[in-house]
Structures are given as structure tokens and as C-alpha cells.
Amino acid sequence: NLLALTVAALKGAGHDVKTLRGVIGGDPIGELVKTGKTETSLDALYDEMAETIKFAKANTPELRTVFINSDAYTDGGAEAVQEVAYTFATAVEYVRQMQKRGVELHDIANSLYFCFNQGANFFMEIAKLRSLRMIWAAIMEAFGAEEADRAIKVHGRCARFTKTVVDPYVNMLRNCTQTFSSVVGGVCTYDNPPFDELIRKGDVFSRRIARNLHVMLQEEFGMLSPIDAAGGSWGVETLTKQITEKIWAEFQKVEEMGGIIKALEAGYPQAQVAEVLGKRFKALEMRSDRAVGVNMY
């Protein structure tokens, strides 16, 4: 796998793999949701996941090897509540399966990295990112994790669902607001894809614009300075509280069904996301929701 190839390449070049940082991780349930199948059984993939966690602990302690990605839900049109609830339900399944395989909770916590997509609703996305930190801390506390192991590592990216093939240059504006909300919301890492990712491989211009946005937010906007830029904002604080309650309620529904696998077998997340997708398309058709370059201007 990629982890083994990376370690072999570094060792072959004479580098110390203990300095390897970041994430090289798998997400078998995410692959199952996205494609409807996995290369082998989930149990076999869980076994492999447990081995990668143990390997990383011994050889690359700064590297995380479980990358839980919300793409399958957001690409399908899921709203923020569904995205976080189902992604966390997936993470909980991994925690339980790793514990069954004898992996310590501390090691599990230090192997997890989450990826969430940022949509077009500016304040909602900020509230979502602030909310999920509290929820994940509560989940890990319920597992008995020490306070230091309740923190969450979050990678953000601009949601593909909000991008358009028609008039793709408008995607630059979408990427800008989505990246801004991600930084304000407090992601750990972020990638801003080229505005033309849906129609072609990014060219020199689109890649330069994507890079420049990062530089502008850091150097011109000073976004690395505030710890919690939205903290104390009545509107954002209220929205954070509201979305937290909704995410927790949806997460509990999945837990009551027996976890994410049982819920997927029953078709519950699929049906919920499909319902939201239908409403989104209807709102675009009726122009109650505006997509610049598609149904407006």
C-alpha cells in the first residue's frame, strides 16, 4: 500500500522515517459508501488498519493512518448535519473495531484524521467546524479518552458539489468564501483545488490562483493570528449551538440502528441524503436558491 511504498522510498533515500508527518490513511467504510464495495472484507481491512496504527506508533509516530473522509456524503448532496453525523458514526465504528483488535485508545485517537468539505453557506460552515470539535470531544470522552486525546484533527477542502461546469470561473468566488469559512472555523490543514477541477486538469493559471488564495489569507488577511475568529459572535455562537444539537440527534439515530454499517444496510443515510438532494435541485429550479452562473446571471 501507499504507506509501505512511502516508507520504503524514504529509507532507500537515506531519510529517517520517524520525521514523517501528516496523514497517509485508509477509509474502508468511506470507500464502501462511495463505490458500493471494497477490495476485500471489512474485517480484513480493519485488521490492516490495526496493523498500520501499530506500525506508525513504532516507526512514524507523527504520522496518522486513518483518514475519515466525508466526500461520499457531500458529493451526493448531503447537508452539514448529515455530513458530520455520518462521518462521526464511521469514526466510532473504527474506534470500536480497533479496540476489538487490541489497539489502545490513545493510539487510536492519535491515528485519526478527518476531512470535511466546505459548502456555500458561509456562516453554517463556520458553525459546523466549531460544532464538530465539541461533539468529537464528547464522543471520545464517552470512550474514556484522556483530555489530550479528545482533540480532533480536521482537514478541509472546497466542496465539489457546489462547483459548476458552466461558467467555471465563478468557482474562484466559491473557493474563496469556502476557504475563508474553513479558516475561520478552525481547520488544521486545507487544500484549495483549482477552479476548473471538474472539467480538466488544472492549468498554470488555475493552479496559480489556487495557491494565491492561501497566500492572501495568510499574508494579507492575517488569518493565522486569531485563535477563534468567530468566538463571541452572537450569530455564530447561536448557530453553533443549534447545529450541534441537530448533529448529535442524527448521530444518535445511527447509533440506535446499531452503527453506521447497520444503518447503511438499512438504506437510512442514502435515503436521507437523497431527500436533501431532491430539495436542493428543486430550490435551484425555482430560484429560491441561487447559483451564480447557473440559474442567476
Number of helices: 12
Cα(first) to Cα(last) distance is 47 Å
Order of strands in the sheet with most strands? 1-2-3-4-5
Largest sheet: 5 strands, parallel
Tell me what portion of residues adopts beta-strand conformation.
Answer: 5-15%
Using only C-alpha atoms, the radius of gyration works out to 20 Å
Assembly state (oligomeric):
single chain
Structural class: alpha/beta
Topology as a string of helices (H) and strands (E): HEHHEHHHEHEHEHHHH
Number of strands: 5
Instruction: Please bin the fraction of helical residues.
Output: 55-70%
| Dominant shape | globular
Report the uncertain regions. Answer: none
**Mean pLDDT metric:** 92
Give the structure's gist in a few sentences.
With 297 residues, the chain is an alpha/beta fold.
List the helices and strands and how they pair.
Blueprint: H1 2-12, E1 22-26, H2 28-35, H3 42-59, E2 63-69, H4 71-74, H5 80-100, H6 105-109, E3 112-118, H7 122-143, E4 154-158, H8 171-185, E5 189-191, H9 204-220, H10 234-256, H11 260-266, H12 268-285
Parallel strand pairs: 1-2, 2-3, 3-4, 4-5
What would your notes on this structure say?
By secondary structure, this protein is of the alpha/beta class. It contains twelve helices and five strands. The chain has helices spanning about 1-10, 30-35, 40-60, 70-75, 80-100, 105-110, 120-145, 170-185, 205-220, 235-255, 260-265, 270-285, and strands spanning about 20-25, 65-70, 110-120, 155-160, 190. It has a five-stranded parallel sheet. Helix 7 links the parallel strand 3 and strand 4 (about 155-160). Helix 5 runs parallel beside helix 7. The mean pLDDT is about 90.
